[in-house]
Amino acid sequence: MENQFFKSIEEKTGVNMKEIVDLANSLQNANFKDEDTVRRIIKKVSKIANRSVPRELEDKMVRSIVADGKKLDFATISDMLNKTKLK
Predict the structure, then answer these.
(1) Contact 51, 81 (CB under 8 A)
(2) Which of 6, 53, 63, 67 could serve as 17's disulfide partner, Cβ 3.0–4.6 Å?
């Protein structure tokens, strides 16, 4: 039943669930005070979401996340991407 649920999500969104699970696992122990780590995560999320992130927006997101240093999840970063007009 779980596999069918994930298949349904993949069909509706076009997003590979394995990629999302892998990303979620990488977020658990990530150091959000480290700029390189945060940039890698933003790039992973943008790739999964099939969105490009202009350098200016990436810099703004990195500054915000590093300054806060709190744990993030896929939904938080995805919301950041969705609130901007990206191509």
Answers:
(1) yes
(2) 6
Residues 6+ away with beta carbon under 8 Å from 45: 23, 74, 77, 78, 81
Running DSSP on this structure, what letter comes out for residue 73?
-
Which tens digit of pLDDT belongs to each residue from 34-75? 999 999 988 988 888 788 889 998 998 899 889 876 666 667
Tokens of 74: 């896929």
d(CA 17, CA 59): 27
CB-side neighbour CA atoms (13 Å) of 63: 6
Whole-angstrom Cα distance, residue 38 to residue 61? 9
Give the DSSP H/E element, type plus range, for residue 18: helix 17-28
Handedness of CA 49, 41, 55, 82 (dihedral sign): positive
Query: What tokens does 22 get?
Result: 């892998």
pTM value?
Answer: 0.69
